[in-house]
Amino acid sequence: MADKKDLLFIDCCIRKEESRTLKLAESFLEVLDKRGDFQPEHLSLMEEPLLPLTGDFFRQRERLLEEGRLDHPRFRYAQRFARADRILVAAPFWDLSVPALLKIYIENLTVQGLTFEVDGDRGELYGICRADKLCFLTTRGGSYKDSPLETGIPFMRNLTEFFGIGQFDYVAADGIDLLLEPPQVILERAREEARELAQNW
After folding, report:
1. I need a surface site. Which of 10, 88, 153, 182 has the fewest CB within 10 A?
2. In the chain, which ranges are continuous DSSP H helix?
């Protein structure tokens, strides 16, 4: 297919091969692969030299922004995120939200002029990313469905809006470690939900 959509798969599945979240993502991606209308790129955050914005690393960023050097390799995460047609994010539920690694990645891709802009008259921020959809896949050991303590999904939904991406979807496997049901039953139910979502995504 000549006009495949550019899919950026942001993998923050810390446990890698043992990750239940990665299994959820694989189910989603398998359906997209069968559809044949996506060209995925796998970005494994565990293999990236990500740093928080502090010290000299932060000061370098500020200098480059002042000079308008948005083509600098330093901003490669923002450049790649901004041009994707669709974005898939997979990360487990950690400490009531998402892993710090994912937050550091987001901190690095949030760049004025690449992923967001500022309205000069009103001072309001607005997203300028190309993607029209972002899907977030997660797994939770405890029961946090509809809980105000679950801040990972709201965080990702708000970021989707901030970056100017029109549609936010998610699938969450909840309560896997509570043994109210066999863990594989809960995960398989979520995997089927992911497959169904991918079919029409």
Report:
1. 182
2. 20-35, 55-66, 76-83, 100-109, 152-162, 183-199
Q: Is 120 exposed, middle or buried (0-12, 13-18, 19+ CB in 10 A)?
A: exposed
- Going from N- to C-terminal start, the domains of the chain cover 5-199
**pLDDT digit string, tens, across residues 84-112:** 999 999 999 999 999 999 999 999 999 99
This prediction has a pTM of 0.95
| C-beta of residue 97 within 8 angstroms of C-beta of residue 155 | yes
Question: Per residue in 105-148, pLDDT tens?
Answer: 999 999 999 999 998 777 799 999 999 999 999 999 999 999 99
Integer-rounded Cα Rg, in Å, for the chain is 18
What's the DSSP call for residue 116? Answer: E
> What angle (nearest 5°) sits at the alpha carbon of residue 60, between those of residues 66 and 158?
75
Three-class SS state of 137? strand
> Please, what CATH class does the domain formed by 5-199 belong to?
alpha beta
